[in-house]
Amino acid sequence: MDWLGVVWFFGLFILLLAIGAPIAVGLGATGLFLIWKFSLGMAAIGPTFYSNLAKFQLLAIPFFIMAGLILERVGISERLVRLASLLIGPVHGGLALVAIVCCVFFAGISGSGPADTAALGTILIPAMAARGYAKPFASALVASGGSIAIIIPPSIAFIIYGVITNTSIPALFAAGVIPGLVVGACLAIPAYVISRRHGWRGDRYGTRAEILRALRESIWGLLAPLIILGGIYGGVFTPTEAAVVAVFYGLFVGVVVYRSLSLESLWGIIRDTVVSSAVVMLIVGFAGLYAWAGSTMGVIDRITQALLGLSKTPWVVLWVINLLVFLAGYILDGISIYYIFVPIIMPIMAAFGWNPVWIGVMLTVNIAIGQVTPPVAVNLYVAANIAKLSFDEISRAVWPFVLAMLLSLFIVTQWPALSTFLPALFGLK
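Given the sequence above, the corresponding structure tokens read:
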């Protein structure tokens, strides 16, 4: 089969994407065709598809999605934005910095880039526009900040990576905290520079009474990530159990504390959770089938050996991998990238002795960039829809933030200790 299998493996999939097929359809159709063409065993299709989905850890995904939706619908995001605005005050780019701070914090609740973008974009984009910020700038900033949600725990991306590589999900969650803050700090640089150049400022500082009142109103949102992550790191519950706890915590806040969650809104949350989870699981199932076909054909081994043959210097191979993942982010979603590239990377990790937790964080930061790089830039589509902008307008405005995120990728890649420090501190492996 030699390189012919590699051509079929990538060529057919890219062709299907080029003619407009959804990613899940492209993965599934290519996988099924390869299994038929190369006689890999049609009887293996059902068990392989089922085994990709029948994993206990994946149960955390719909529950974290639902928890994020509940906490967003009961007004947590609005309260967090108000508190941050009162604290940051009238400095240049004040609202832009508020947006980044809120994106970082809400990431500890949602675990999803599009959800983070939607929850905060509906509040921050109109608020920034009302104070003179350019709408494309505000929208691109929120979309970029929203991508931090897949880096800071609880991260749906880390759950997927942990399932594929059999890496500790609690360790991955802990590993994502510092790199997520690094991404936020890097995004703050262009946000401040561009805002200062245009004279965009925040609002006034809050009085002590206003800050205390805002703190009281947002305390339930501030407690959410502490309860979720504290329970995981303290060994009280697993990530899957933590997701269920997060749902019931959100219901308690919405029904008992804020009393803003009605039966109608709860039904809408359940409906959105089912739709979002179905999309994720469909991609997981088909991507796993596609990856299995590639592995059985020997395509994965072929590409792995080619990458190992590029150089005996680990850093050269590492940055080639980063380049490939970055380019893949232009046309693929994160789940597909994990299932296609991680089986290729795993033998390379073993060969060079790379820490799988660090590599998982590096890949996730890279994939986060893919959420804002056109044409497949889901966060940009969400933000553009909120701001009622054309996709071209927001695409032009996002590139300073893409460069900032590339800087954060360089930092996370070059200094593995940023990813491994907290897992080691908590004794997570």
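The CA atoms of residues 175 and 420 lie 6 Å apart. Try to locate this feature in the token string yourself.
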